[in-house]
Amino acid sequence: MTVPSKTPLHGHLILVMTKPDAKPQGHHAEEEPRFQLNEDYWSAQGFGVDVDGASPNQPIVIDERTVGYPLENLAAVPAGDYLVQAVFNVYEQFHLEDGRNLWLPPDKGEGQHWYSKPGNPYNAPVKLHIDPKSSTPIRVTLDKVIPTIAGTDEDPEHIAATSPAAKWLKYVRFKSGKLSKFWGRDMYLGAWVLLPDGFDEHPNAHYPLVVYQDHYHAGFGAPLPFLTTPPKPGAQGREKMREQYGYKFYQDWVSGRLPRVIILYVQHANPYYDDSYAVDSANVGPYGSAINDELIPYIEKTYRGIGQGWARATYGGSTGGWESLATQIFYPDSYNGTYTACPDPVDFHAYQNVDLYDDSNAFYRQGSFGKIPIAADRKPDGSIIANTRPEYRFEYVLGTHGRSTEQWDIWQAVFSPVGPDGYPAEVIDPLMGTINKQVVEYWHDHYDLTAILQKDWPTLGPKLEGKLHLAVGDGDTYFLNNAVHLLQKTLEDTRNPHSDATFQYGPGEPHCYTGGPTEYTMQENSATWAQRVLPLMTEHMLKTAPPGADTTSWRY
């Protein structure tokens, strides 16, 4: 592979191969090979190699020693014709406040997707005959560059400027002093703000704040549809349902059928992932402080929030589920309730399907006569669709030293101390599966939410009464229900006070189940979540508001 350049190359080369006659799968079914590589290991073959200071135009070699996924090396690839495409994920050097100088992939506004990151060189797909037994080199030149997103439908500022919902939806690009100091460069948070109907007509009203937690999305309408027009004629399937429920949410919002609150959705993509997990971290930085101590006070001051803990709540699912629960636990006085759905592992006895405390290896459990692979993903009926070993290998192909910008690596980046090389300390060896128990101990003390609640219950318990509400499908795709059950058992054993946390389990329901009426489909369940939880949040706020609190100006 050759990458035209005028300066030395730092980054990670990812080569993707697909079969020309194979039907592409997944969200990018009609797209190029670079969009087809994913962790369910049947769409594409990938190889990855680090590039540290290579000379301009110096060939980057992929050979039988290069780590591959799902086939483990080039020698295992059957001879034949393939569509071949490569992307060079460009790294930049970050000079951190603590003296570390790290080469990392910066987010360029795309939400940490190496295959669409502006500035990354790549080549158009080319059909090649590959025979691992041949000694003849195959040359590919990465002669294209992914364009910028500025002024496109993937640019939040462009979306905000052209949105028909601009009366209610505002976008803020907020420079964080705390994050900028940590990372040694200017760092920003994006914030979508949904204002209540009547905001301009009631200048003396102040409003509760509801923080919605989710992965990175360019626009507010992706995580929480707010669509001012009815569904387009001809819309079908998932698109039709999204438009129907997005329009219904808009109607409920502007008609007074929903409480008049401010909803805040924060974008916090960073050099390790599309999301920071909204806590302070040795590797990812002080995102918890930046969001709660810098951004939220600014939003409340700018848009007339009440600005007190009794008048704040949070909710989210999956990554956002973990964030919403962690936010309520780590900032117990600053929030008055969380509605948490399908959260990432809240107890590291069930780190997906791995017990970090009792297992010695994350890839296998040792039987009397052999090794038993540890499953990672499943269908609701229990059919296994992925194991932990290939998932780790997939991420290793995308980046070493925890730089894949994928799921296992971001958990490691958030939860781990700094490792001896300056990057996140490995909790699990990505190629062998060995579990580092010293790192696990750090995880336990700082980020195991069940362990923290158990240890600090005498202090936390009284502050969390009436505030904890969790839902998860008992067929969760990533086994996340197991950790929620462990959390429930721990809270059921609490005293002084006895926890009143609520739990709802969806029998046989997969990932992203949010609770609610049992007759709802998964799609209805997700699409009506805001309408279901906002009244519950404000009802609790009114019941627990301190004497003299503003409980009237926002209830017009």
UniProtKB/TrEMBL annotation:
InterPro entries reported for this sequence: AB_hydrolase_fold, Esterase-like, Mycobacterial_A85_antigen
Origin: domain of life: Bacteria
Pfam families the UniProt entry points to: Esterase
Transmembrane segments: none
Name recorded for this polypeptide: Esterase
Organism whose genome encodes this protein: Edaphobacter acidisoli
Phylogenetic placement of the source organism: Bacteria, Pseudomonadati, Acidobacteriota, Terriglobia, Terriglobales
